[in-house]
Amino acid sequence: MPLIILTGYPSSGKTHRATQLSTWLTSRISTLAPASSLTVHTVTSTSLGPRSAYASAGEEKTLRAEELSAVKRHLGRNTIVILDAPSYIKGYRYQLYCEAKAVGTASCVVHAGTSISQCTTNHDTLPTSSQYPPATFTNLLSRYEEPSNLSRWDSPLFTVIWDDPHPPYEDIWAALVGPDGRARRVKGHQATAKAPNTNSQGLAELTATTQAVIKAFSEWYGVVEDGGGAGEGEIVEIPGTKERIEVPAVRPSVAQLQRLRRQFEGLQRGKVNGMVTGGAGGGSGIPDEPSSDLAGLFVRFLNSSWDSK
Questions:
Q1: pLDDT class for 302, splitting at 50, 70, 90?
Q2: What is this structure's pTM?
Q3: Distance from first CA to last CA of the chain, Å, rounded?
Q4: In 10 A of CB 287, how many CB atoms?
Q5: How many angstroms separate the CA atoms of 76 and 73, rounded?
Q6: 195-206 as b/e: b if 16+ CB within 10 A
Q7: N or C: lower Cβ tally within 10 Å for the chain?
Q8: Nearest alpha-carbon partner for 15 in 52, 45, 59, 39
């Protein structure tokens, strides 16, 4: 389900806005008909580590890792996740954006747009135990990377200034949840897609098959260090398939044959792993549908590669 990323200066009111959002979303979900299984979960950085962690680069990195882990645990089909954390680094917001997109769900950024002077006043009124160390507070103010709606990982962006009574609830809801009360689905990008499970047995068979074809062709054609050869247009029968290799005009070297073998295996690897390749052939002589005749496919690929007639 959707991810709402709070961001802003320290003591800008992020926790207050997160509480407002959680309360409103819970109430809004209760009005859905039929009854919805949606829930709201807030991940709060202060519950995972002290504010003093931001005084040390190592401790801060550990805290962000724990935040990210908590977000990933709760990102699911029926949970709206609110991250109440500084999120002041644009690279970290990008990482959160990718995590949401990887599971096919939408995300948005809610920016607590409070001025530095107001944040300083807010911070000074906190109990000492809840304050940042003075140097850390100043450092966080100077290091803050403001979100921009021109960046895809910060979009959609909702800025809530200090005087606003509440965030734009309906706009946030419309951006993350469809009119049917279900989370908007986001098409994953190849960069964020999870790697498929590897069919090791199938890959081993693919490699063994292509190596056997290359060996049979090399032995017949004499593509070895000692030389040899055969005439153009002759036919080479390959064990295990009815397809036959048509001898090219220019004798391929061992390196060329191995390069073609690796190229073919790369094209076929997705199919072996059970992925939908969406037409991996692309004019390479490889049909788009899977086939058990790997040797035959490889022979056709070789013939197509050197355009034998």
A1: confident
A2: 0.62
A3: 55
A4: 12
A5: 8
A6: eeeeeeebeeeb
A7: C
A8: 45
Q: Which two tokens stand for residue 35?
A: 């009854």
Write 44-50 long-range contacts (CB < 8 A, 24+): 44/15, 44/18, 44/84, 44/85, 45/84, 45/85, 45/86, 46/15
Tell whether the model's pLDDT for residue 274 goes beyond 60.
no
CA distances (Å), 139 to each of 5, 39, 48, 167, 239, in order?
21, 36, 21, 27, 71
Whether residue 2 has a cis bond before it, omega within 30° of 0: no
From the list 126, 122, 136, 120, the residue with the least C-alpha distance to 52 is 136
Residue 93 in tokens: 């917001």
Quick one: CA dihedral 139, 140, 141, 144, positive or negative? positive
* The total number of residues written for the chain in this structure: 309
Q: What are phi and psi of 41, to 5 degrees?
A: -130, 130
Tokens of 175: 């951006």
Q: What is the mean pLDDT of residues 86-105?
A: 90
CB atoms within 10 A of CB 84: 24
Residue 294's φ and ψ, nearest 5 degrees, are -65, -40
Report the distance separating Cα 137 and Cα 222, nearest Å.
74
Beta partners for 6?
110
